[in-house]
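Service request form, structural biology core

Requester: graduate student, group of Dr. S.
Request type: structure prediction, single chain
Budget code: on file
Notes: please return the result as structure tokens.

Sequence provided:
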Amino acid sequence: MPFGLGFGELVLIFGVLLLLFGAKRLPELAGGMGKGIRDFKRSLNGLDDESIQANAQQNYLQSPPPPPAATHVPTPVESEPTRVG
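Core staff response, request fulfilled:
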């Protein structure tokens, strides 16, 4: 079990949390805590939304434009003179 806690200890902790915050509030708290952890990990890696968008915009502006599409105009094919004979 996590942190060396047994099943009984985890049930007791969950029961106390349920009494303190109520059944409606616990999922909101867990979701907020998960979002906070995700944001913290992103900030450690330097990956916040603004820097990702700025980096993408900078790479887009620095990349060379794609080559123009080939607009091949077929030339009329000269036919060989026909032999009559």
